[in-house]
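User: Could you write out the 3D structure of this protein bound to nickel (II) ion? I've included everything you need below.
Assistant: Certainly. Input first, then the structure.
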Amino acid sequence: MSVRPILSIGHPVLRQPAAAVAGDEVGSVPVQSLIDDLIETMRHANGAGLAANQIGEPVRIVVMEVGDNPRYPYKPILPLTVAINPVITPLDDETVEINEGCLSVPLRGNVRRHVNIQVDYLDRDGFAHHEIKRGLTAGTWQHEVDHLDGVLITDRADPASLATWAEFEAHHRDAFIERITAFVDRVGS
Ligand code: NI
């Protein structure tokens, strides 16, 4: 396992749609060691998620985990999840504007996300999952799957909301946390 460099916006691999992992490759040493590297790199950077193309591997694998995260203190707990070939299907038209950051982008911005989604994916043991995700957890899934399609938060964010982390902390953090805490209390995740 190793901490890998995280690519920044402007690197072409971040814009390249990632390729599906063949079912019989899931258990292979290269795929399993890539998953280990993604987990270690995400944790080292205090990220809530990381997509394989962010470390230069254009394949459809994402990892997500939220514990007590200093980057995102308002996010509900999300146990370590490895998703291979994830597919998201919105369940209805409800959306919420979430202020998001990204390990590949030095800005935060408000992105509108579906609140209720279905996710279909394989875990690292090759088992198929079909689950419902809601709220900020659903937002995290949408952010990570966007990466696999070559989409970054700067593409989706309200342009006027873009801010550096320091300016977000100074001017927008309190209002966002108040709004999103009320949302999490209502939605439960
Ligand atoms: Ni990201």
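The mean pLDDT is 96.
User: Perfect, thank you.
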